[in-house]
Specification:
Helices cover 33% and strands 19% of the residues. A hairpin with a 2-residue loop joins β3 and β4. α1 packs parallel to α9, α1 runs parallel beside α16 and α2 crosses α17. The radius of gyration is 22 Å and the shape is globular.
Length: 508
């Protein structure tokens, strides 16, 4: 008889878990509070133009890429529409202070060669650093779909060393140190705190295969939902869990806001642990465990500006852009006043087709602390009042002023502009303080800053971006680990690796 699985949260973590478990013979039901499943994969339309809510740059779908293997096993790679970013510059990092734009190239040798043109005297140091990044990633078992051979905290070098210290051990050039950390905005990197393995994974991941979804990321979520349904499962949207009924360290049922009750053999939560604790009687957990999770530091949030362009007014750019006023802003972008904000941004023109010449839209993401909007924390979407709307307009203009410095007459090319604040992110994703990168991993205290997949409740597991690593890489890898608790990790990894690889549309 099939074991029943109930998954709370239909973001990428919940959907990947649901797809894997349905393939492996489990009966899966996913509860998603929004009208469409997808979480960070979700897209929305304004003026008939589709915008991504969170998934802007991807990787891992190249031949033998980790996600290519996983989604080939799930059976959806050939349904994905993916476009590689520019080979000689998938990311551009512009520092306004000296007017230099650094290009990050795809491929290990190409990356070293390209970056060395800016720092010719540092070529060997750059090569050695990138070689070290690759060695670190080769030795992370789950990233390579291998069984862990030792305790996760046994590799002191990569767990208890910060990515900033690792970089500094290869070069004492302060500008190069900053340039090698250009992608901090992709993972919420913090100086002297973010573990070396986090920075290494993200950097390696994109050097190997930086790409973008064509036409938005929602089609990945839809493909995962289809797999769950084809295997007899269901994804229930507009269904928010309101109470988890636990007796004697065992979940009996989950009650939805509409009053319906759902029972299963196993339960998986893919929502933020703090959100999960709001719908469960915390007396079922040890006080120390509850307090530890409640006190884990969350990553910063963001103020996101969405722009639509007038026809044929702004060229399509097949790369992401990171902009900083000065080099120090890479590490200190969250240290601002209302006058100094923003200290930088990430902006990009997502592809609508495979052959875009002009951009129809731009997404501009600027780091913002939740404190900036805390005065409205007890409001809901659409009911925050005129003071909040004025705040958003003011900060939209700050963003556009910055873009005018990068592109003179930028405003003249705009058709429409609107924005989302940390409050929007908090309420849409149901994450504490609108944290866009989940909880913070701290190399100075790794065990405390990591949340285990297993809980003290005997039929309750956790998954999602707050458990290990966030994003299009970290969340699926965590889903594998979560499902491995039920299927057997060795068996699951073997099943994934035995599946014939498929090719995304862009490789055909």
């Amino acid at each position: 008889m099939k074991k029943n699985i109930l998954i709370i949260g239909g973001g990428i973590g919940g959907l990947v878990c649901g797809a894997i478990l349905s393939i492996e013979g489990y009966s899966v039901r996913v509860l998603e509070k929004h009208k469409v499943a997808g979480g960070g994969l979700h897209t929305f339309k304004r003026n008939d133009i589709e915008f991504e809510t969170g998934m802007h740059l991807i990787s891992g779908f190249q031949h033998n890429g980790t996600l290519n293997k996983l989604f080939s096993y799930i059976g959806i790679v050939d349904k994905l529409h993916i476009k590689p970013a520019d080979e000689d510059g998938f990311d551009h990092f512009h520092v306004a202070a000296d007017g230099v734009t650094y290009k990050m190239a795809r491929g290990q040798d190409n990356f070293v060669k390209t970056l060395s043109t800016y720092f010719p005297e540092e070529k060997e140091n750059i090569r050695d650093y990138i070689k070290k990044i690759y060695q670190i990633c080769e030795n992370i078992p789950i990233y390579n779909l291998r069984m862990p051979s030792a305790d996760i905290y046994s590799n002191i070098e990569v767990m208890e060393t910060s990515i900033s210290d690792l970089i500094a051990s290869y070069t004492d050039n302060p500008k190069l140190q900053t340039v090698l950390a250009w992608n901090n905005a992709m993972y919420g990197g913090r100086k002297n705190k973010t573990p070396a393995y986090v920075g290494a994974l993200i950097t390696h991941f994109y050097i190997e295969g930086a790409s973008r979804f064509v036409g938005g990321s929602q089609h990945l979520a839809d493909a995962l939902v289809q797999i769950i349904e084809e295997n007899g499962g269901e994804v229930l949207t507009n269904t928010s869990a309101s109470f988890i009924d636990i007796k004697e360290q065992h979940i009996l049922k989950v009650v939805a806001e509409n009053g319906k009750e759902y029972m299963a053999d196993w339960y998986i939560s893919s929502i933020h642990p703090s959100s999960m604790f709001k719908i469960v009687d915390t007396c079922n957990f040890k006080k120390a465990y509850y307090q530890r999770i409640d006190n884990i530091q969350n990553s910063n949030s963001a103020f996101i500006t969405f722009v639509t362009f007038k026809p044929q007014s702004f060229p399509y750019q097949n790369y992401s852009n990171f902009y900083a006023h000065d080099y120090d802003d890479v590490w200190n972008c969250a240290e601002y006043t209302s006058e100094s904000w923003p200290r930088g941004c990430m902006y990009l023109t997502p592809p609508m087709t495979y052959h875009d010449t002009f951009a129809k839209k731009m997404i501009i993401s600027t780091i913002m602390k939740f404190d900036s909007v805390k005065k409205w924390e007890n409001t809901t979407i659409g009911k925050r009042g005129p003071e909040y709307e004025n705040f958003k307009t003011n900060y939209e203009n700050k963003v556009l002023d910055m873009m005018e410095k990068i592109f003179p007459d930028f405003r003249s090319k705009i058709n429409t502009v609107f924005s989302a604040s940390p409050l929007t992110i908090r309420d849409y994703y149901n994450v504490k303080e609108g944290a866009i990168y989940g909880t913070i991993s701290d190399c100075n205290n790794m065990p405390v800053s990591q949340i285990p997949i297993r809980t003290k409740i005997d039929n309750f597991l956790l998954t999602g971006q707050n458990i290990n690593l966030h994003g299009i890489l970290g969340v699926p890898l965590t889903a594998i680990l979560t499902c491995g608790e039920l299927i057997g990790l060795d068996k699951l990894l073997k099943n994934i690796k035995e599946k014939n690889l498929s090719l995304p549309t862009f490789l055909k």
